[in-house]
Q: What sequence folds into this?
């Protein structure tokens, strides 16, 4: 009888509603005093604005917003405050081009080792103010592992939209075994190494990437600069294959990014319905008009062109790659100007991994040098990046309801875009990771 009463009492305790004391406390309120606010929409800067944040979201923003009673105040009244930057084209889990034996690291280092390197690169990008990255191709799904680890709070890093394994034709730019002898791998490369030929194989490659966590699909429509055995401008996938890729990706609610340098491959990819053209180095008026008509994005990666041209000039690239780098880089500048003047939608992307991570903001200056206004470049690296990624409801601008991704710099980027290369304050999802130019330790990162 006593045992039965004890069981009954225990069950009644389990079924009773939780007390008010058990409810989680409301998230702390933080108020940022911004000397100048550039909100990412392209609107004119606002002086002396207040941004109110509760938890990971902005609740109010504007020059007439009052600091709530009891709020923790972050004084950025001497700074320019902007949305967290978005780099829509990076590679994390790989060595920087030109550093050591970068061509063969995938053969001599474990995938887990390269993933750890990717974690270090991700933190460097975050500290530079890039709170969101689109990672467009990584062996062994290391970018997906990094995304999951960052989301779980295991390591600091930007928000990641990852492609997993990018793919293309056998022997093409995306072939992960490009340049190796047949016996080096032990088997002929397949979708695991980034190879898919024909309509049925490319459908399978899309499904394979999505099965293992890809947020976006990345393909190689043309040859590339850093691959040994292909011509940089030549179309590689047929338009029929690319249509199959886009159709399959759309069925799985994924967008398609197409690496494309040459004009014919760019046009075929745009007609096939890809969301974005990566690099877009050799555009002509017809290609620009087609991209404008279809609403296709350009991610120009000017910094990658600048970097490979510099490495080639310094004799730090293999001759076949150096020749391509020297030929393609100057054409990128003219194509970018054509796209800007033609009203093509443009999002900032650097191809970080080609250059050192953490230096991504140099792309802003190159975009201004080759045809954009400073405000256009800022929009490309904030709200336009968010729209390309399909995250415009959450990030890309400083507005009520958006995630609290906020950076600050000293100086006015509309007068000198280079000030964006020296970010002094970084907040992602309401957590401060950098303040007064100093990176905060793990235990302090959640505290303003």
A:
């Amino acid at each position: 009888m006593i045992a039965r009463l004890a069981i009954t009492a225990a069950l009644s305790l389990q079924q009773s509603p939780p007390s008010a004391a058990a409810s989680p406390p409301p998230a702390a309120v933080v108020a940022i005093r911004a000397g100048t606010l550039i909100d990412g929409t392209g609107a004119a800067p606002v002086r002396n604005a207040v941004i109110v944040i509760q938890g990971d979201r902005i609740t109010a923003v504007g020059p007439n917003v009052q600091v709530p009673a009891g709020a923790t105040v972050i004084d950025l009244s001497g700074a320019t405050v902007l949305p967290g930057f978005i780099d829509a084209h990076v590679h994390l889990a790989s060595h920087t081009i030109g550093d050591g034996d970068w061509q063969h690291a995938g053969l001599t280092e474990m995938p887990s080792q390269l993933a750890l390197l990717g974690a270090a690169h991700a933190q460097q990008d975050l500290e530079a103010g890039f709170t969101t990255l689109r990672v467009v191709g990584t062996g062994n799904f290391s970018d997906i592992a990094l995304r999951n680890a960052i989301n779980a709070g295991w390591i600091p890093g930007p928000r990641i939209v990852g492609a997993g394994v990018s793919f293309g034709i056998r022997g093409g730019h995306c072939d992960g075994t490009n340049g190796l002898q047949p016996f080096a791998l032990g088997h002929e490369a397949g979708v695991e190494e980034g190879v898919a030929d024909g309509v049925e194989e490319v459908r399978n490659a899309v499904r394979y990437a999505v099965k293992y966590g890809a947020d976006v699909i990345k393909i190689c429509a043309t040859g590339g600069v850093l691959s040994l055995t292909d011509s940089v401008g030549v179309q590689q996938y047929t338009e029929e294959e690319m249509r199959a890729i886009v159709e399959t990706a759309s069925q799985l609610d994924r967008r398609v990014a197409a690496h494309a340098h040459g004009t014919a491959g760019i046009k075929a990819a745009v007609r096939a319905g890809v969301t974005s053209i990566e690099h877009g180095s050799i555009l002509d008026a017809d290609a620009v008009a087609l991209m404008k008509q279809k609403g296709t994005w350009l991610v120009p990666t000017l910094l990658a062109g600048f970097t490979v041209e510099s490495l080639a000039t310094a004799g730090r690239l293999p001759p076949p790659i150096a020749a391509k780098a020297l030929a393609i880089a100057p054409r990128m500048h003219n194509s970018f100007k054509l796209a800007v003047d033609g009203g093509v939608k443009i999002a900032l992307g650097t191809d970080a991994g080609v250059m050192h991570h953490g230096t991504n903001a140099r792309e802003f200056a190159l975009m201004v040098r080759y045809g954009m206004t400073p405000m256009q470049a800022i929009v490309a690296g904030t709200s336009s990046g968010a729209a390309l990624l399909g995250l415009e409801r959450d990030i890309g601008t400083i507005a009520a309801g958006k995630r609290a991704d906020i950076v600050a710099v000293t100086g006015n980027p509309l007068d000198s875009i280079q000030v964006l290369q020296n970010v002094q304050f970084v907040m992602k999802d309401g957590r401060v990771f950098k303040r007064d130019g100093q990176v905060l330790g793990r235990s302090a990162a959640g505290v303003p």
Notes: Confidence is low (pLDDT under 50) at residues 1-20, 443-448. The CA atoms of residues 182 and 188 lie 7 Å apart. The two ends are 57 Å apart (CA to CA).
